[in-house]
Every structure is written in structure tokens, then in C-alpha cells.
Design goal:
Its cofactor is a divalent metal cation. Belongs to the class II aldolase/RraA-like family. The protein folds into 2 domains: 158 residues, Ribonuclease E inhibitor RraA/RraA-like (Glucose Oxidase, domain 1), CATH 3.50.30.40; 40 residues, no CATH class. The strands form 2 sheets. Strands 1, 2, 3, 4, 5, 6, 7, 10 and 11 form a 9-stranded mixed sheet that branches. The protein has 8 helices and 11 strands. By secondary structure, the chain is of the alpha/beta class.
């Protein structure tokens, strides 16, 4: 997929630099597996202290989908090793649980990207259907079915699907500008003469609109 390849060339920090209004999940949602990178559409689940809905989602989602679980930020495990293995078998793009995850001995070595708010041995029940493919809240932000999830070691972003391509273009421009500034600094230059710092500060002092940028 062309967009996925383009995402591998940038990072979430550059994407955030390109747009300060993006939905960023709380840092309490932490990586639990060996692979941080996610790029795929959200398959959403809402459940409370019961993980049947998560199992249903894993078995219903399409390859590449990212299971996003609104577990109410409660400290009960809504998934574990078997769910990770099942998701790998189905070719899913990752699992994000705003609640607990368990079986970290396996999960920590797993190549499927897995994130959760808690690690806990106590699992929920299996007597409630849960709700699938509805707007949910995960990591403090709203996630709609089909929203794109972009993640790396810096964090997790939720992006409107029709904005992904333009954001990746902007992120590439950010990385190119950063690369030029890096070369300038390695050569002995300063941040002041590698940016418009002086002009930017002067403009702000005059009350004029301005933006810090790389020269």
C-alpha cells in the first residue's frame, strides 16, 4: 500500500508538526509488544469488564484492521496471548485496549502491535455482547469506525481517512527541513542561524503574527 510505505518514511512527530489539531491518544496507552508501528483503519469495540466484544471484533475485522477497544479505562484485562495469536492469524494491523492486557510474557515478544492502558492478570467476563463498529473513546479521544490509526514509538494518532495523504505530504516536508537543519548543526551552525528565530521573536514582540520555521 503506497500510503503505508510513505508513513514508514516519516514519524508521528512530523505528522503532529504538520497539524497541531490531530487527535493524539494519551500517553497512558502504552506499547506492550515488540512492534510499535501501526497503519490501518479502526475497527471499534465498546465493552465494560467483559471481553466477548473484543473476541467478536477480532473474528469479524478484515486483514489490516486495527482493533480499538473502549474499555472504560478499567483495570481488567480485555485481551491476552490467545487474542494476539488470533489477530496475527487473521492478519490484523494491531490491538489498542483502553483497559488491561495480560500474558505479557508472550505479548512483549509479539510482532503484532499491541497497546493498553494497564497490564493485569485479572480478566473480565464473557457474558456481554459489547458494541462493535460505533464511535468510541480510546486514550481520551474519539475514534470512529474507519478512522486511520497511525502509531510508532512516539505515540498513537487518530486521523480522518481523507486527510492521510495530505498529512503524509506535509510530514515529508517537515522531515526534509529537519534534515537540512541537522546538516547545518553538524557543520557547526547554530539554531539561531538555522531558523528564523530572531525575526520570529521580533514579530511577536510587535504583536504581529509569525511562525517559527527552518531557514
Amino acid at each position: 500500500m503506497a500510503l503505508a510505505a510513505r508513513f514508514r518514511e516519516v514519524d508521528t512527530t512530523a505528522i503532529c508538526d504538520a497539524d497541531k489539531t490531530l487527535r493524539v491518544m494519551e500517553s497512558a496507552i502504552k506499547l506492550r509488544s515488540a512492534q510499535p508501528r501501526i497503519f490501518g483503519p479502526a475497527y471499534t469495540v465498546r465493552c465494560r469488564e467483559d471481553f466477548l466484544g473484543v473476541l467478536r471484533a477480532i473474528e469479524s475485522a478484515a486483514p489490516g484492521d486495527v482493533i480499538v477497544v473502549d474499555g472504560g479505562a478499567r483495570e481488567l484485562a480485555l485481551a491476552g496471548e490467545m487474542f494476539a495469536r488470533g489477530a496475527l492469524t487473521r492478519g490484523l494491523g494491531g490491538i489498542i485496549v483502553d483497559a488491561g492486557y495480560r500474558d505479557i510474557g508472550f505479548v512483549s515478544t509479539c510482532e503484532l502491535p499491541i497497546y493498553s492502558r494497564f497490564v493485569t492478570p485479572m480478566a473480565g467476563t464473557t457474558g456481554k455482547l459489547g458494541e462493535l463498529q460505533i464511535p468510541v473513546t480510546c486514550g481520551g479521544v474519539v475514534v470512529n469506525p474507519g478512522d486511520m490509526i497511525l502509531a510508532d514509538s512516539e505515540g498513537l494518532l487518530v486521523v480522518d481517512p481523507d486527510r492521510v495523504s495530505d498529512l503524509l505530504d506535509a510530514a515529508h516536508a517537515v522531515k526534509e527541513a529537519e534534515a537540512k537543519l541537522t546538516e547545518h548543526l553538524i557543520a557547526g551552525g547554530t539554531l539561531s542561524d538555522g531558523t528564523n528565530l530572531s525575526a520570529h521573536v521580533d514579530a511577536l514582540k510587535r504583536g504581529e503574527p509569525s511562525k517559527l520555521s527552518f531557514d
